[in-house]
Write a structure and sequence with these properties.
- The protein is of the alpha/beta class.
- About 20% of the residues lie in helices and about 25% in strands.
- The chain folds into two domains: about 1-15 and about 295-325, no CATH class; about 75-280 and about 330-365, Alpha-Beta Barrel (TIM Barrel), CATH 3.20.20.
- It contains seven helices and 17 strands.
- It has an eight-stranded parallel beta barrel with strand order 4-5-7-8-9-10-11-16, surrounded by four helices. Strands 1, 2, 12, 13, 14 and 15 form a six-stranded antiparallel beta sheet that branches. It has a two-stranded parallel sheet with strand order 3-17.
- Helix 5 packs parallel to helix 7.
- The protein is globular.
- The two termini are about 35 Å apart.
Length: about 375
């Protein structure tokens, strides 16, 4: 598909971009003083402003010119189904979604070594599903200080996590930026947190996709499994937005992941994660900061004929054609990947994240404990 970009530039080119949000694109900044239970309702058109001349006019719904395939065969049967609900997108969850485990995303460790943004457990009615508080740390340097036994912040954070987990059935650690030399500190952190939580709380850990144990691997599946009830293998992000175009999770990629995961993680503890999201790539980037010479070059290349001065700042516009390549996931692709795992004997699967999915995907999962599903 192709997209026409209209760029307005003041020695930079400004372009509106709607990014796909993967597991790596996590926390959304909340309005100041907003309580988790009083979050603004978002829409799929968030970030796109309606032109003033179009406001108030009747907008005809657009009809897709394309079609998707529908899955065939029997539904995938699961013993456990885990799904992530972002606290800023809580309206995208409802109890009709067959989840045995709901992961509230997420509480974050801030730059002061404090646990902040803890979602209110009461903000969602999840019925009989188990509730899990997800903990993230979005900085490699901060992760080091949180894990290191040299600093007081480690035990302080553990105590704060235990206190925050009081209203939940379990805790999930999702530290995706563990420094290379902090493997021992990470494993001992998990061991200490497991002990402090007690046996009555579920404890799960997210790990990145692996085909094999890496040299100096900071996420050794087998060691991590020793200290938790479940390991959530994030079997996605095969291709990233700043890399070459390709599926978020291809069939061959998933086969390699599950083969290794089964060897390293006990069957009872293994959850394989599936992606609901997709990504897009463009063959030309229009946004950026420019040298004066570079701005002149692109203006000449795109045959700019006029420069307007806005408050004394030269500004220009041009129109260019950008080719966009996208790989997304629909019910057909998600079910196909799930069947790869089902054929490999996997009975516990999870989904990143609720709200991103093709709604018809739930017709293709039969989950134990959901008789009407």
């Amino acid at each position: 598909m192709k997209k026409i970009i209209f760029a307005s530039v003041c020695f930079f080119v400004f372009a509106a971009v709607c990014p796909a949000r993967g597991k790596s694109d996590k926390l959304e900044e909340l309005p100041e003083n907003t309580e988790p239970g009083e979050l603004p309702v978002s829409s799929e058109n968030e970030g796109f402003e309606i032109p003033p001349e179009e406001k108030g006019k009747h907008q005809e719904p657009m009809t897709p010119l394309y079609t998707f395939k529908s899955p065939e065969g029997n539904p995938v049967r699961l013993q456990e189904s885990w799904g992530y609900v972002m606290q800023s997108r809580s309206n995208e969850y409802n109890r009709s979604i067959p989840l045995t485990d709901v992961c509230f995303f997420a509480a974050e460790i801030n730059c002061y070594g404090e646990l902040v943004g803890v979602p209110k457990r009461s903000s969602l009615d999840i019925g009989k599903a188990r509730s899990h508080l997800v903990i993230v740390c979005e900085s490699k340097s901060l992760t080091h200080f949180v894990l290191s036994q040299k600093y007081d912040v480690r035990m302080k954070i553990i105590k704060q996590i235990v206190k925050a987990a009081d209203a939940y059935d379990g805790v999930q650690i999702d530290f995706e930026l563990v420094p290379a030399r902090d493997k021992k500190a990470f494993i001992s952190f998990l061991a200490d947190l497991r002990y402090m939580l007690g046996k009555e709380k579920w404890f799960s850990v997210c790990v990145p996709a692996r085909f094999k144990l890496l040299q100096e691997d900071v996420y050794p599946y087998s060691q991590i499994a020793t200290y938790c009830d479940r390991i959530f293998v994030m079997a996605y992000d095969e291709h990233w937005s700043n890399g070459v175009p390709g599926p978020v999770a291809s069939a061959e990629f998933c086969k390699k992941i599950v083969n290794y995961a089964k060897q390293a993680i006990p069957e009872k503890k293994l959850i394989i994660g599936l992606p609901f999201y997709g990504r897009t790539w463009a063959n030309e980037t229009t946004a950026g900061a420019w040298y004066y010479s570079g701005a002149n070059r692109i203006m000449t290349e795109h045959k700019v004929t006029e420069v307007k001065y806005e408050d004394g700042i030269p500004a220009f516009k041009y129109t260019t054609e950008v080719e966009v390549t996208g790989y997304i996931n629909d019910a057909y692709s998600v079910v196909n990947l799930a069947r790869i795992y089902e054929n490999a004997g996997i009975k516990k699967m999870g989904f990143w994240r609720i709200g991103q999915e093709d709604p018809s995907v739930w017709d293709w999962f039969k989950v134990r404990g959901f008789p009407n599903n």
